[in-house]
Design brief:
The protein is of the alpha/beta class and 339 residues long. It has 13 helices and 8 strands.
Length: 339
C-alpha cells in the first residue's frame, strides 16, 4: 500500500512528460509545415506579423486590410482574396496579436479595441494612411473598433459573418478552460494538441457547414497553427472576453460614420446572424446588409466574388449586391443538388 502513491505520482509524471513532449514535437512540425509567409514589424515594444502586398501598375482600388477571425491567421484570408485582388490594390493580411506569427503584446490586446489600435499602428508603419477594412467573424468586432476608435484610418468596412453584438448563452467550454491561469496552461500543453489534430478535419468542415469546405483549406488556411499552446491560450482569452467587450461597446456603433457592407448567410452555424449582422445594420447609419440564402459562416470562401463587389462598392463603384447575392444562392443550391 505505501508504494501505491509513489507509483501513481511516477505514472502521472511520465504521462505528463509524454504529453508535453508530444505537444512540443507537433508544434514544431506545424511550424515547419506552415512557415511564416509575412514580415514582423515592431509597432512599439512588440511585433505584428503581416503579409504586405504592394499595389500593381493597374491598381484600381484603395488599400485593403484583412482581419481574420477566431482560431485563424493571415493565411485564412490570404487564401481567399490574394489571387483575385493581387495587382488591383495594396493588400495587408494581418496576423492578429498573439495569432499566427504575431507577438501578443500587452494586456490591452486581449480585447478588440486593443487589437484595433495595434493594427492601426501597423498601418502607419507600413505607410497605409486609410484603407477598406475587411473583418471576418471575430475580426468583425476588431473592424468595428477600427471604424469607431480610428475613423481616420477607415474608408469603409466589409463585415463577413461578423461577431459584433451581445448574444445569449456563453462560449464553448474549452475556451473558458484554456483561458484560466493554471489549468488552462496545463490543458493547452497536454490535451489540446492531440485532440485538436484528431478533430481538425471535422471541426473545419463544421465551420463551413452547410457548405462544402474547400479540400485544400487545411493546407491553404493553416488552421493547425492555433493548436500551438501559446496561440491556443491567446485565442481562448480573445473569445472569453468578447461578450463583455461587445456588451459595453456595441451601443457606441451609432457613432461610426464610414460606410459599411455586411455579408451574411441565413445558415451560419457559428455566429447568430439575426443578432450580429442585423444589429450592425440597425446601428450603422451608412450600412447595407446582404443576406445570402444557404450560406454558412465562410462568405470569404463561398461568396468571394460578392465580397469583392462589396469592396468595390465601398471604393465608390456602382454594384448591385443583391443581384450578385441571388447568383451566389443559385450556385450554392446547384452545388447542394449534386452533393
Amino acid at each position: 500500500m505505501p508504494l501505491v502513491l509513489p507509483l501513481l505520482l511516477s505514472l502521472t509524471g511520465l504521462l505528463l512528460a509524454c504529453a508535453f513532449g508530444f505537444t512540443a514535437w507537433q508544434a514544431a512540425r506545424i511550424e515547419r509545415r506552415f512557415p511564416n509567409i509575412g514580415d514582423l514589424t515592431d509597432i512599439g515594444g512588440y511585433r505584428l506579423n503581416a503579409l504586405h502586398v504592394p499595389e500593381g501598375p493597374a491598381s484600381d482600388l484603395p488599400p485593403i486590410v484583412f482581419i481574420h477571425g477566431a482560431s485563424g491567421n493571415l493565411r485564412d484570408q490570404e487564401a481567399a482574396f490574394l489571387a483575385p485582388l493581387k495587382d488591383r490594390a495594396e493588400l495587408l493580411f494581418v496576423d492578429r496579436p498573439g495569432h499566427g506569427y504575431s507577438e501578443r503584446g500587452g494586456k490591452a490586446n486581449a480585447t478588440p479595441d486593443g487589437q484595433a489600435a495595434a493594427i492601426a499602428r501597423l498601418m502607419e508603419k507600413r505607410g497605409i494612411e486609410r484603407a477598406i477594412i475587411v473583418g471576418h467573424s471575430f475580426g468583425g468586432a476588431i473592424a468595428a473598433s477600427l471604424a469607431l476608435f480610428h475613423p481616420d484610418k477607415v474608408i469603409g468596412t466589409l463585415f463577413l459573418a461578423p461577431a459584433t453584438h451581445p448574444w445569449p448563452g456563453g462560449i464553448d467550454w474549452h475556451y473558458r478552460l484554456a483561458s484560466t491561469p493554471v489549468l488552462g496552461w496545463l490543458f493547452s500543453h497536454t490535451l489540446v494538441m492531440p485532440a485538436g489534430l484528431a478533430i481538425m478535419d471535422k471541426a473545419t468542415r463544421g465551420v463551413f457547414f452547410p457548405n462544402p469546405r474547400r479540400d485544400s483549406y487545411l493546407e491553404e488556411g493553416a488552421p493547425a497553427l492555433v493548436l500551438r499552446p501559446a496561440t491556443f491560450r491567446h485565442n481562448a482569452r480573445d473569445v472569453a472576453s468578447l461578450l463583455a467587450y461587445v456588451t459595453r461597446t456595441a451601443p457606441r456603433y451609432r457613432e461610426i460614420g464610414s460606410p459599411a457592407v455586411i455579408v451574411t448567410g441565413d445558415s451560419d452555424p457559428v455566429v447568430l446572424a439575426n443578432i450580429h449582422s442585423t444589429g450592425l445594420k440597425r446601428d450603422l447609419a451608412r450600412s447595407e446588409l446582404v443576406w445570402v440564402k444557404g450560406l454558412g459562416h465562410k462568405p470569404d470562401y463561398m461568396a468571394t466574388d460578392l465580397a469583392i463587389a462589396a469592396i468595390e462598392k465601398l471604393a465608390g463603384r456602382e454594384r448591385n449586391l443583391d443581384t450578385m447575392a441571388r447568383q451566389v444562392e443559385e450556385r450554392i443550391a446547384a452545388e447542394n443538388a449534386v452533393r
